[in-house]
Specification:
alpha/beta, seven-stranded mixed sheet, 9 helices, binds zinc ion
């Protein structure tokens, strides 16, 4: 980790940084470069720019894409002054609130230390960052023309957040999926996840992949379509257990506490999944009482992790 950009497909690079173990992508074309995600502070964004210059002094970053709203993917945007920042419309809509949410979490509990992979200095930089919002947003899909190749950004539904997109470089068989997929940890079900819709969203993105595709997750090593399919199935199982318990009339507090051997991830990582799933199932079914109780008790772990 931290060794700079490695080529994972033709003129498609990934750098993996130790703080929050986050990936940054770089797509080179005749008419400039696209950076995919920008790390967790302005300072970290400038470090990305330094790594890009080490790769090639003449590389011009003309575009930045945010795969979703979370701080470890957006806070470095401001470093790329010559670039247009692209994101889904829901990222632009929720950015200010998410910036405040994550900053207050860090103020309450920095959670730093060797085991966390980041230091108090990193937290200071997060808190000091004035986050640059996207300049260009879209609803379903948009493209970036680099002259000799096209990069396609596609929103196929909600999942890890309501604004996750894929970034597809079709000629190279490479796709960035942000935190819709994670390789170095289980997928993150946070306070803004959509657990009942996530698997369906991944199925849509899978339609663009084949056996040779290289898929870059938000965190961890590049994977293939089979990995995505398998994690999609695991996420689907989480949604299925939530739906079953909701339909069987369980209380939310019983549902978040009761193990099920089918669940692919530890229960304490699924607390927000159950609470959010309860809320969404209630909204689908028009159940106002359940909706209210699920809203009242959102958010489990206060400690900021990879987001
Ligand atoms: Zn995230």
């Amino acid at each position: 980790m931290g060794s700079g950009f490695l080529e994972v497909a033709d003129q498609v690079f990934v750098a993996r940084y130790p703080q929050w173990d986050v990936n940054v992508g770089l797509v080179l074309g005749r008419d400039g470069a696209v950076v995919v995600d920008t790390r967790a502070s302005s300072l970290q964004g400038f470090e990305v720019l330094d790594d890009i210059r080490r790769l090639g002094a003449d590389i011009e970053v003309r575009h930045v894409v945010n795969t979703h709203v979370h701080f470890d993917h957006t806070f470095g945007n401001g470093a790329f002054t010559a670039a247009t920042v692209h994101a889904h419309a829901n990222v632009a809509r929720s950015l200010d609130a998410d910036v405040e949410r994550i900053k207050s979490l860090f103020r309450a509990d920095p959670g730093d230390g060797p085991e966390a992979g980041y230091t108090s200095r990193d937290v200071v930089e997060v808190l000091a960052t004035a986050v640059r919002a996207p300049d260009s947003t879209f609803g379903h899909s948009a493209t970036i023309d680099l002259g000799n190749r096209v990069v396609t950004m596609t929103w196929s539904g909600r999942g890890h957040t309501d604004g996750d997109i894929s970034v597809h470089v079709a000629d190279a068989g490479a796709m960035f999926l942000g935190d819709l997929i994670e390789e170095s940890a289980p997928p993150s079900f946070g306070q803004d996840c959509w657990p009942l819709e996530w698997a369906g969203t991944l199925t849509e993105h899978l339609g663009w992949l084949d056996a040779d595709s290289v898929v870059v997750p938000g965190h961890g090593s590049p994977v293939d379509a089979e990995f995505v399919r398998s994690q999609r199935d695991a996420v689907a199982t989480v949604g299925q257990v939530i739906r079953e318990r909701r339909a069987a009339g369980w209380s939310l507090e019983a549902a978040v506490a009761e193990p099920d051997s089918r669940l692919p991830y530890a229960l304490d990582r699924l607390d927000s999944a159950f609470r959010r799933g309860w809320l969404h199932a209630a909204q689908d079914g028009g159940d106002a009482a359940a909706s209210t109780s699920a809203t009242a008790s959102t958010a489990s772990s206060a400690r900021p992790g990879p987001d």
